[in-house]
Amino acid sequence: METIKVYTLADLKVWDFPGTALAVIGQPIKHSLSPIMQNAAIKCLAQEDKQFEKWAYFRFEIDPEDLPEALELFHQKRFLGLNLTVPHKVIALDLLGEITCSAKAIGAVNTLKWSDSGFEGFNTDGYGLSKGIEEGLGINLKENSVLILGAGGAARAAVVECLNQQAESIRILNRSKDRLDAMLSNLSNLEGFESIIPVQVKEDLADLPKTGICINATSLGLKPNDPLPLNINVLSTEWSVYDMVYNPQETRLFIEAQKHGCAVKTGLSMLVHQGAKALEIWTGKEVDPQIMYNLVKQALDNQGNR
Ligand code: NDP
Fold it and tell me: pTM above the 0.85 mark?
């Protein structure tokens, strides 16, 4: 069966792949890079262990309304693992048997693993973020001041990871106050919550520390004419900037932060590490993220997105 094709709920109903199937599900899903990087990693595992020759990673376009039916079918058809992307990460929570504590705290799942009783839910975005920052910028969240832009699913994963890694302080700025308040009330039981400083008005950014890590977890940057998520002049040049958006590879924030003199990376390393962790959960094997990185980088370069 082809791993490039976009499969649907109708295909799932008659699914008869004889090997071990994995998949990413979302809407839209056509542009997902996960099948390229996961199938490359599986191919590498197969060189060491022949059981992985029968493994393949597919993509499915699933409407959110069909998610309950789809998850039941994925389970019946014995898909070993699923990745969930927009818009399924939050709505899947109520459909799962077991959820890890950190996914519960985040309020979203991006990785599911088959078990007899249903799918177990994980969230590997926070892990991907801290590994991506470590690798891309050579710094750690631990004991650093962090400014997070956004209050959606990705921002929540970032906040929980910063709390787990004991960041020195966590400032959060979001366009809509309601969403920021809702996020804060959901996270209020977590250890370290007092290190969170909501930024209600942009003037609050005047007293930022001299160094820190700014993480863009808004969707601004995906489209060429998007405004900047932050006036870059509020950061001293000793700040580092990590933009979760990775397509285009050089977002407007990336370009402006670089001009300003900050160290800056876009989110490809996060994508790769969250994917590598998911594959590790399914296979129990360590996978080489570099091979996955090289392939997705090549795919983006081929699209002409720098
Ligand atoms: P959500 O839709 O859950 O959240 C979107 C966020 O962007 C909200 O905080 C929203 O603010 C903000 N936003 C959207 N439009 C604007 C605007 N015009 N001005 C200001 N703020 C805006 O998305 P996710 O959290 O799932 O994803 C966020 C980004 O992170 C996406 O670009 C996604 O591609 C990226 N991502 C990257 C990953 C990686 O591996 N590199 C992994 C996961 C996500 P408001 O609340 O006011 O609407």
Answer: yes
